[in-house]
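Supplementary Data S3. Sequence and structure tokens for construct A.
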Amino acid sequence: AVSRQARATRVSANRAAAAAAEADPMIAEAKAEPTPALPVFSPEQISRLRQHFEQFLMQGEEDSGRPLAIEVSQLPEMLGALGQDITAEEMDALLQHMGANLETLISFADYVDIVSLFFE
């Protein structure tokens, strides 16, 4: 089992890698500073997660000028496509933890954080 502090550190490292990939994919590896003892996503994994995320973007989102985001309601399908089924209870707990509802929009960095919780 991963401690809360270790999980928070890993989530921070994954968020840094995701943010770097959003800003400039060429420097993503240089900006990510993962903690060696904790499993974090590699630049290749971040790239694959980015492609997966973009497949689920809301229609017309890229042209709207708004940040790219998906609805929380899409998470069960997205996680299922990654081989991680999420139960109704897990979804409810996630929503409560996030302070979100099914219509809440999440960014790519948020998505990476959420995925990291299911791939410990």
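Construct B, processed identically:
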Amino acid sequence: MIYKVVILCVLLAVASGYQIKSQHKKHDACLITCSGWTEPGKGFQKEGSNDAYVDASMVHCGFIDTPVIVSSIHGGGYHWTASGGSAIYKPTRDSFRIYLRHALGSYTQATTHAWYIEYIAVGYVC
């Protein structure tokens, strides 16, 4: 489902004349779409009583600049009650961070219900 949403967003952006701007001159042939996910229930760190964060690696994509990133939270249950799964923090060409908040404690819920982050990133590789 996330792929359909991202494709629609990219098509709408292109149709309206949006361009990804960078300090380097780029060619369309260098623009790629890359996807990935964090390991279910792993990598989460506690942040306060109800918050947790997880870092997602995009090293395999080979971006040369910070890409445009769209993310969503998935898992074995209760992930629909968490907030923050699509808010990107600390983006770089190689990684980004997601902070999650849940009333019953994000870290406990994330590890118990095998939550993970899926993402699609669009950026340049040359």
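DSSP finds two helices and six strands in the chain. The beta strands are 31-37, 45-47, 51-57, 68-74, 95-101, 116-124.
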